[in-house]
Amino acid sequence: MSVIRAAEPRDAAAIVGLIRRLAAFERAPGTIALTEGTVRRDAFGPHRRFRVLLAELDDVPCGLVTLLDSYSSWAGAPAMTIHDLFVDEAARGRGLGRHLLAEAARLALAEGCCRLDVNMLDWNEPGRRFYRSLGLAALDGWLPHRLDGAGLQALSVPAGANGG
């Protein structure tokens, strides 16, 4: 039997395992710094940074969606971002991905969100087809950008602080 449910602190190890399998699928094994401790702190602590919905088959976690709270300044309303969506290969084809996203949509609507956003790898054609089948549309003209590591540190230095 399959179940979609909100993750709990006791699920931290399963969450880390699923994220590691997602990283392997995304051709980035060994890049995950996430630990059970950071999951407990950031998903279940007093200053929650993300939330997780789990898919289970016969009480075994086999998929997840991680969600971030965001905001649309143009709509003047909360929004939600899907950060990760993953279902173990052996559990695919049972509708779990769709059920995870449906539960995310219900949660977003219950919290007054105006939209649900997602980014995905450009080479993931099965994922693109999946999202399109559920009504998600690519945003023409928008390109995601990121600043991390040394670039993030460099930008944080006040102008002129290093002679620049």
Summary, kept brief:
With 164 residues, this protein is an alpha+beta fold. 34% of the residues lie in helices and 24% in strands. The protein has a single domain, classed as Gcn5-related N-acetyltransferase (GNAT) (Aminopeptidase).
Q: SSE layout and pairings?
A:
Elements: E1 2-6, H1 12-25, H2 36-44, E2 51-57, E3 60-72, E4 77-87, H3 96-110, E5 116-118, H4 125-133, H5 149-156
Parallel strand pairs: 4-5
Antiparallel strand pairs: 1-2, 2-3, 3-4
Helix pairs in contact: 1-2
Explain what this protein looks like in three dimensions.
With 164 residues, the chain is an alpha+beta fold. The chain contains 5 helices and 5 strands, in the order βααβββαβαα. The protein has a single domain (2-156), classed as Gcn5-related N-acetyltransferase (GNAT) (Aminopeptidase), CATH 3.40.630.30. The protein is 34% helix and 24% strand. Helix 3 (96-110) links the parallel strand 4 (77-87) and strand 5 (116-118). The protein is globular and about 65 Å long. The model has no long low-confidence stretch (mean pLDDT 95).
